[in-house]
Design brief:
The structure holds two protein chains of two kinds.
Chain A lengths: L17 H34 L29 H33 L5 H15 L3 H15 L7 E3 L3 E4 L2 E4 L1 E2 L3 H31 L7 H17 L6 E2 L2 E2 L4 E2 L2 E3 L1 H27 L3 H9 L4 H31 L11 H12 L2 H30 L5
Antiparallel strand pairs in A: 1-2, 2-3, 3-8, 4-5, 6-7
Helix pairs in contact in A: 2-7, 2-10, 3-7, 4-7, 5-6, 7-9, 8-9, 9-11, 10-11
Chain B lengths: L18 H9 L4 H27 L7 H6 L8 H12 L8 H17 L8 H18 L15 H27 L4 H16 L2 H15 L8 H26 L3 H9 L4 H16 L1 H14 L11 H10 L8 H30 L6
Chain lengths: 393, 367
């Protein structure tokens, strides 16, 4: 008795074959999309020829010819367009990065506040979240900007705090240390201190795992960092020179100023996104079963240890992916700064469109910038997410 | 030895755990930190709340009287700006004597929106009903037939435009989103790639750049001598944008359907489309209703951006109403607070509905 022969593999060019149908569908789809792209490109080229619109990215090398109110890198009106775009990008990143840090802090505080034993705190956190996430971000930005420019006193008579910080229609001015060798040494000390603190934590953890002896994981490293920074500062001769703003005749001089546009954008973005982050944090903490905290308590962990060692590490797994989305939203929403005149990359590109008429190129640049920011951020967060995910055997 | 029985003193009765006093103790003064916090908040409230109430209510001017408002400036709010300008804020530049038309259209759309939130309406004919009502609303607003004056779309504005833009775009985005979501889970690499690229591309860029594209680049995309209205272009932009986000929500729902469902359908001999239509989608779409509502809320808020490309929906109409009028311009803050309240009422109601429907849909799991 011999085994039956396997049927000969036949390539059947029939509509009944699933793989053939899939191939046909895909070819059709590709063909349709190629046709669509060709149609749009053809129309665009034709329209541009008829209307005499020039195209190409060569304009990026021409002088921009407009001033930008707020620059992080050196720029003047004679610089080429690409530099103007770079200034815009720097402004966008500035507001996005500071915004993300502040949003995380406020959002986490409010999210944890929803679990407070104090009813007033719970109610306030709930009210904050509902109020701020149910009003469009654009409206909030416009409202903050209006409040800052209407209700604050004129630049000649600012509100002052201890004669150090001034707030007026002209913005917020605050003192900054004069950058010198001493500050550099302090910064160096700080960096060395951070490295030493990290090494200490590693050592303490290793020892804990070997001997079970609990070493301080927070206070000692914090002390190392502070002492190292202070040492660096003292070694360099303890420089204590500050650029303090002071009230001159009509304006505030000295110090560093934040423009009202920047403050309004930052305030609007942070308060709006923090409401969403608070919800993310709340649902993350709520996702950890109560039995975990009870078990921690019966092992003798303090409420603080319970939060830090038991609840948060598990909640973080739930929190990180939606949190990433919120950070990306904040970055994308920073493009609304154009509505109140903060010179972010969208606003620069708008000016460039008005001056050169190269709409396609400018919009493409803006989209590319946001796309690469989004993709790189989500890549980074995915990497972190993988690290904190459950390690399954 | 005569031992005297001396009982241990009785333990004090426990604090009552009911009643307002016990509630206060538990929720406001459970330990010294909590108590200190409560007191600090109360002190802050006593310091600031009377001032706010004074500004917003007691010293405010509600009459449409610019001089009285000017006199109360800095002391009380000028709600007179709302009394004076509310029709311009709510209806934008729509011809004054014809404003009943957007009103009726808005009421129609809102009635349908509310009806769509109830289960008896979750039937295939709901889609047809939407098409009919939206077409009716569109005709009512644009006119040109049935003896109605023609009103060009650049005169549309205010709340009707906000509601129309958001509901039209979500309704049109929905079928695209379902197809794209199915495409992203397809076995065919080419289709999967296209759908993934579309979703990631749109989700990676801000809405404002899509709107700029709609207003600057769409005219170039069209064949010679063919122009489309700016409202339609913006609507197309918002639809494409919403579809990408909605597709991810629908995909989440599709992923939640156990594979056994598809396998069972296949073993019954159902085709791919029949499987999707009869087995997968009804389950998946019911799961994602809260997600769709949330998506609608964010589109509703995002329509405020069209004011940047010169369409005067609610936010834009406010600027339109106040910027050109020197008498009332100083009271823009009150105007902003008015539309803030409108947005808040709409979005808050929808988010409550989303929570409620989520509970309803999960009832079978929480038995």
């Amino acid at each position: 008795m011999s085994a039956r022969q396997a049927p000969a593999r036949r390539r059947e060019w029939s509509w009944r074959s699933r793989s053939i149908r899939a191939l046909v569908y895909q070819l059709l789809a590709v063909g349709l999309i190629v046709l669509l792209v060709w149609f749009l490109a053809h129309n665009t080229a034709e329209n541009m020829r008829v209307r005499g619109i020039q195209s190409g990215f060569d304009f990026l090398l021409q002088p921009a010819g407009f001033d930008i109110g707020e620059v992080l890198i050196h720029y003047d009106a004679l610089d080429p367009y690409w530099r103007a775009f770079l200034v815009g990008l720097a402004n966008t990143l500035k507001v996005a990065l500071i915004g993300i840090v502040l949003t995380t802090l406020i959002g986490t505080a409010v999210g944890v506040g929803r679990f407070s034993s104090n009813a007033l705190v719970r109610g306030l956190c709930y009210g904050y979240v509902e109020l701020f996430r149910n009003v469009p971000i654009l409206l909030q930005l416009l409202l903050w900007y209006l409040l800052l420019t209407e209700w604050l006193p004129d630049a000649s008579e600012p509100i002052s705090a201890f004669g150090l910080v001034f707030l007026s229609k002209g913005g917020l001015t605050y003192p900054v240390p004069v950058w010198g060798v001493g500050q550099a040494a302090a910064l160096g000390g700080l960096l060395i201190g951070l490295a030493a603190a990290w090494a200490w934590r590693r050592h303490a953890r290793a020892q804990f795992e070997r001997t079970g002896r609990v070493r301080s994981m927070f206070w000692v490293p914090a002390a190392i960092v502070v002492v190292a920074a202070a040492l660096g500062w003292i070694v360099a001769g303890a420089p204590n020179e500050w650029n303090v703003p002071r009230l001159a005749d009509v304006i505030v001089e000295g110090g560093t100023a934040l423009t009202p546009e920047f403050i309004a954008v930052l305030l609007g973005l942070v308060l709006y996104t923090a409401a969403f982050v608070a919800e993310v944090v709340r649902s993350g903490i709520a996702s950890v079963p109560g039995g975990q905290s009870e078990a921690a308590g019966s092992l003798g962990l303090s409420p603080g240890q319970n939060m830090r060692l038991i609840v948060l590490p598990q909640a973080l797994r739930v929190i990180i992916p939606p949190m990433t989305n919120q950070f990306l939203n904040l970055t994308k929403n920073s493009s609304l700064a154009v509505a109140i005149g903060y010179p972010d990359v969208v606003s620069i590109s708008n000016t460039a469109i008005n001056q050169t008429g190269r709409a396609i190129e400018c919009i493409a640049i803006v989209m590319l910038i946001y796309l690469s920011t989004s993709l790189s951020t989500s890549g980074l967060m995915n990497w972190y997410n993988k690290r904190s995910a459950i390690k399954e055997r | 030895m005569n031992a005297v029985f001396t009982p241990v003193a009785a333990r004090p009765a426990p604090h009552s755990t009911r009643g307002p006093l016990a509630w206060l103790r538990r929720n406001l003064f459970s330990n010294w930190q909590s108590g200190a916090f409560t007191l600090a908040l109360l002190v802050l409230a006593v310091m600031y709340v009377p001032g706010m109430l004074h500004w917003a209510i007691f010293a405010s001017v509600t009459a449409a009287d610019a001089d009285a408002c000017q006199a109360a400036r800095g002391i009380g709010a000028c709600w007179g700006v709302v009394t004076e300008k509310h029709r311009l804020i709510i209806f934008g530049r729509y011809p004054f004597d014809q404003q009943w038309r957007p009103l009726v259209a808005t009421v129609l759309m809102m009635a349908l929106l509310m009806a769509s939130c109830t289960r008896p309406f979750w039937r295939p004919w709901l889609a047809a009903l939407w098409v009919v009502v939206l077409a009716a609303a569109f005709t009512l607003m644009s006119g040109g037939v049935l003896g109605l004056n023609k009103v060009t779309t650049d005169q549309w504005g205010g709340l009707p435009l906000t509601i129309m833009l958001s509901s039209l775009s979500i309704v049109m985005a929905f079928p695209i989103a379902v197809l794209v979501a199915m495409g992203r889970r397809s076995q065919m690499p080419a289709i999967r790639t296209f759908c993934t690229i579309y979703v990631e591309l749109i989700r990676g860029v801000p809405l404002i750049s899509v709107l700029f594209m709609a207003s600057f680049m769409f005219p170039l995309f069209m064949p010679q001598g063919f122009s489309i209205d700016v409202l339609v272009r913006v609507l197309a932009g918002i639809t494409l944008f919403a579809a990408a986000y909605l597709a991810e929500i629908v995909r989440g729902g599709l992923q939640a359907i156990p594979k056994g469902q598809v396998e069972a359908a296949q073993s019954l001999g159902l085709s791919y489309w029949k499987t999707q239509r009869k087995i997968v989608l009804p389950q998946a779409l019911a799961l994602v209703v809260p997600g769709i509502v949330n998506s609608f809320i964010s589109i509703f808020k995002d329509t405020s951006l069209v004011t940047i490309v010169s369409l005067y929906e609610l936010t834009g109409a406010l600027g339109l109403a106040l910027n050109s009028d020197a008498n009332w311009r100083p009271f823009k803050v009150e105007g902003y607070l008015f539309i803030t309240a409108i947005y808040f009422v709409f979005c808050f109601a929808m988010s409550r509905y989303s929570l409620w429907i989520e509970k309803q849909l999960n009832r079978s799991k929480n038995r």
